[in-house]
Amino acid sequence: MRLQESGEMYLETILILSKEKPSLRSIDIVEHLGYSKPSVSRAVNLLKNGGFIFHLLHLLHPEAHQWARLWAHLWAHL
């Protein structure tokens, strides 16, 4: 699955929040980004269906975790 820029942003957000909490809920992402619950729910489901996150805890799949760290690093140096 190829990610759109918004998917990349959600993965980066999940990476950031996962450093603060051992597991995440969609509401954590809603509060962090200030987006609506339906928007976050849709994005999380797309990432889940694409194999980027696990269903229950919204944890990054190990391969997606590495990708999200790289993406966050690149954005920090732009």
- Output mean pLDDT: 78
Q: Major sheet, described briefly?
A: none
Tally of separate helices: 4
Strand content: under 5%
Our Rg estimate from Cα atoms comes to 11 Å
Per the principal axes of the C-alpha atoms, what is the gross shape?
A: globular
SSE succession: HHHH
Structural class of the secondary elements?
Answer: mainly alpha
Spans of at least 5 consecutive residues whose pLDDT stays below 50 are none
Q: What's the helical proportion of residues?
A: 55-70%
Number of DSSP strand runs: 0
Task: Calculate the terminal CA-CA distance, rounded to whole Å.
Answer: 25 Å
Q: What is the oligomeric state here?
A: single chain
Protein described:
The structure is a single chain. It contains four helices and no strands. By secondary structure, it is an all-alpha fold. α1 packs across α4 (62-76). The protein starts with a helix and ends with a helix. The model has no long low-confidence stretch (mean pLDDT 78).
Write the layout of secondary structure elements.
Layout: H1 5-20, H2 26-33, H3 37-49, H4 62-76
Helix pairs in contact: 1-2, 1-3, 1-4, 2-3
Which short descriptors sum up this protein?
mainly alpha; globular; 0% strand; 78 residues; 67% helix
Compact overview of the structure:
The protein is mostly helical. Helices cover 67% and strands 0% of the residues.
